[in-house]
Structures are given as structure tokens and as C-alpha cells.
Amino acid sequence: MEKFDVHILGCGSALPTLRHNATSQVVNVREKLFMIDCGEGTQVHLRRSQLRFNRLNHIFISHLHGDHCFGLTGLISTFGMLERTAQLHVYAHPELERLLRPHLNFFCKGLPFEVVFHPIDPGKREVIYDDRSVSVETIPLRHRLPTCGFLFREKPTPNHIRRDMIDFYRIPVYMINRIKNGEDFVTEEGVVIPNARLTFPSDPPRSYAYCSDTSYLPRIAEQIEGADLLFHEATFAEDNAARARQTQHSTAAQAARIALDAKVKRLVIGHFSARYEDEKALLKEAKAIFPDTILADENLTIPV
Which residues sit opposite 106 in a β-bridge? Predict the structure, then answer.
């Protein structure tokens, strides 16, 4: 099975603590790295993850609260000191470029690479990135600023060819990829060997949904239905539901209800309020509704 992992670099909320870093994740799809959000201190945890900096070419910013983007200037500066030459693509609300360009011009003069900004509309559901391995689609959310999540959909891989059939029919090397992609094989005697006899199906494509920050929003269940993994913010427990409504965040129970309604396979909760010394209460609350729930934590790697 091809690599598809989520690396948690930070899972705290806006107020810094000694327990959690500000929000950031890296999604590794077939050794291509995609960053989601870039809070202060992200690059330190990126180093601890031992992920290769030069494979990170795309950064998706969910919204323009500081705990989701204050680390971006520092990360770009570090890329410059590492003599990066490949373009860095940043997908965000169009205001980010207006705000960040003066910082880059002042603090990051002479960058050996280009920072390419891709404006997105957080209120619109659309595919904002697509290649042979994965597509990335926005998930409109509800927060105090225009905000969206991101849905990563893996592309199907070719069928697997059966080794015993290669030997039995003496299939030449140049035909193997063509057979994997659906062609039949014709022997030297002119006998057509159907593709179904030569191959077996590849693993079904996987998906990962990232939803932070947002108030409880049942409509997103339709878009993320069946996701293999859902990250959903759980800033508060139910005893702080009023505070969650006021700040347009979610409780752990609400995150679990989204996971249940969307029929996802697994749920990871994060974006924890600094008021919680121990997030086990949040985990217990979510697991009571959706048992296959885990807590996010810095440098946790979750296979999708």
C-alpha cells in the first residue's frame, strides 16, 4: 500500500502552552509532503518529525488567525537559508498575500526560490490542487473569519499484476505497465488472455478530512462521508458548550457526532483549549459517541 500518513506538528489552540504547539500538520501522500496550517513554532516540530524539508512544496492555510499562520514567515526564511530553489505554493484567503508580502520583502530579501500564492474562497467548495496522486478540496466551515477545511482524496492506483501469470505466459517487461492499466495480453500464438486473469485489484483509494476551526456544522458530514480519517477540532468539552458557541468552536461531543453522521472510519480530535491540563476528559466524551477516536499529539504519525 502506498504511503498516506498524517503527521501532527501542533494541536493546541490560540493560547500558547508548554504541552502543545500551535496548529500544523503535514500530510505525506506517496512521499509528497503537504502542510496544513503553520502556527508559530511549526518548523521546530517539522525538524523533530524528520520529514524532508525539500519534499514540502504546498502549504494550505485554513484561515488567517495567527495560531494557524504566524509560523509561515519563519519557515520561508529557513527554506531560504537551506538554499531551496523549488517554488513554494501557498493556498489561502487572498488577504494572506497582501499581509505577508511586506514581511517577505523585508525579512527574506533575496530568496533563491519563488513563493507562489494561490487565492482560495473559503466559502466555496472546490478542488484547489490536483495531481496524479491526490486531489485537495476545500470544506467550507463556520468560524469568526472566513475558514475552510481540506479534503485529501487519494487517486486510484493501477491493478497489481500476478507474478505467476508473468512467468506462465512469459509476459515481456514492456507489457507489464500496460496490463496493470487494463490491457489484455496476446500470446505469440494469438490467444487473448483477459486482463482479469492477469491482475488483481489495487487497494481502494483513501481520504483524509481536516476540519479546524469551526462551530458545530452538521452539513459537512455529506462532503466528508466515508473518509478514512477525520481530524476535527475539539476545543472544549460539553460543559463549555456556551463558550464554544460564543467563539465558534466545537466540543469533543460535537466532533464525534460529525464523525458518526459522516460514517468515517476513524476520528482524531485536536485544537485543545489551554484550560485543559489533561485532554482525557475530551477523549472520553468523544469516545462515548464515536468509539474509534484518538487524541492528537505533537509528532504523532497516523496512517490513513
Answer: none
Locate the domains of the chain by residue range.
4-157+203-303, 160-200
Q: Which pTM was predicted?
A: 0.91
The string of pLDDT tens digits covering residues 230-272 is 999 999 999 999 999 999 999 999 999 999 999 999 999 999 9
Cell triple for 259: 464523525
**What's the whole-number average pLDDT of the chain?**
95
Residue 23 has, within 13 A of its CA and on its CB side, a CA count of 31
Q: Rounded to whole angstroms, what are the CA distances from 214 to 62, 184, 249?
A: 10, 50, 5
Give the pairing of strands 148-154 and 88-92. Answer: unpaired
C-alpha–C-alpha distance, residues 53 and 186, integer Å: 46
The torsion angles phi and psi of 39, rounded to 5 degrees, stand at -70, 170
Q: Find the catalytic residue in 5, 37, 67, 278.
A: 67
pLDDT digits (tens, 9 = 90+) for 140-172: 999 999 999 999 999 998 888 999 988 888 899
Q: Is 67 a catalytic residue?
A: yes
CATH number of 4-157+203-303: 3.60.15.10
